[in-house]
Amino acid sequence: xxxxxxxxxxxxxxxxxxxxxxxxxxxxxxxxxxxxxxxxxxxxxxxxxxxxxxxxxxxxxxxxxxxxxxxxxxxxxxxxxxxxxxxxxxxxxxxxxxxxxxxxxxxxxxxxxxxxxxxxxxxxxxxxxxxxxxxxxxxxxxxxxxxxxxxxxxxxxxxxxxxxxxxxxxxxxxxxxxxxxxxxxxxxxxxxxxxxxxxxxx
Length: 202
Prior knowledge:
By secondary structure, the protein is an alpha/beta fold. It has a single domain, classed as Vaccinia Virus protein VP39 (Rossmann fold). It is built from five helices and eight strands, in the order αβαβαβββαβαββ. It has an eight-stranded mixed β-sheet with strand order 3-4-2-1-5-6-8-7, with helices on both faces. Strand 7 and strand 8 form a beta hairpin. The longest helix has 13 residues.
């Protein structure tokens, strides 16, 4: 049983997920962790707590969420844990959750401040593809982990665009799963409660 509590949908993936975080730390640079789509914030806070336990350096933890009605229940928990809530990206000095308007999502700040990205936001085709296209500009060697990437995970993403989950399809269409993409190197696919794919910026 894992020592990490990342939420029910991450069961069976905890050790591998934190292993990627530790691999990024091993590069010797401060971790700049970005999570797209926080859900209840369980994984975000677990990563933050783990890194602050194993490293005394100053690291950065940024959450990004498109505004939706269910989001209000997350805010008090993050505030209690010292996370700043901001409607726009202004700087990367503090652990922060940036919230954008659902109709005008803006992740343009991401490449300048991230070396590990966990994508678990809207799982519809265009949203996943757009998130990955932005990640092309991350520093070489940056890690990207995508949740719900199993081919059979085809239920409706009702919390977001209300389309089918298309993470696996996007990874296939972009040539990432076959290592034919010039921007990303495919690393692993792991199956637990859901499927987690890890890739790296070339």
